[in-house]
Amino acid sequence: MSFRLMVTLSMLVLFYPGILEAQENVPHKEHSVKHEKFTPHSTIGLVLSHANVFSGQDENGNKKTLDMPSWGLDYTYHFSPKWAAGLHTDIILESFKVEEHGDGETIERSYPIAPALMGIYKPSHHWSLMIGMGAEFAKEENFALTRLGVEYGAEIRNGWEVFGSLAYDIKWRAYDTWLLGLGISKAFGGGHKHE
Question: Does residue 92 lie in a domain region?
């Protein structure tokens, strides 16, 4: 999947929820409303994303914005309709060089993996706001990180959901990364049930 296509699809999912909610706004023939009963449950998600680093360097040491493929694996436990917690892990699929915050020293990174424990607040059925702490691990050096994120999800059926995500990783005393992704997840161990 090309980067432009992935960005276009992500933007549609993130910023035009009317497309995905159109069917929900059609009144039922009998004018009845279905209510959902919440049951605590877990989800596992797989995300295809692009990591963007604005302080990257090319082979000659010149400043360059890096755009790299990345995978994400997310485990989330939903313990109430509005709150959840999880372990979200991102893996950048390339080796690269970046300029360190502050002194401008060059940092080398080889296929870094970045797990973070996330707290998640859902202001609505589709939107999730996230904040968490974790670390980025690579053979050269490890960095603590803070992750901020937002997701928009649309349920397909039988506990399956597609979602768009935007996350910002602040690697302490190192560099920052933007991640834009498109994912799919599956709920298990409970889930929503219609009354």
Answer: yes
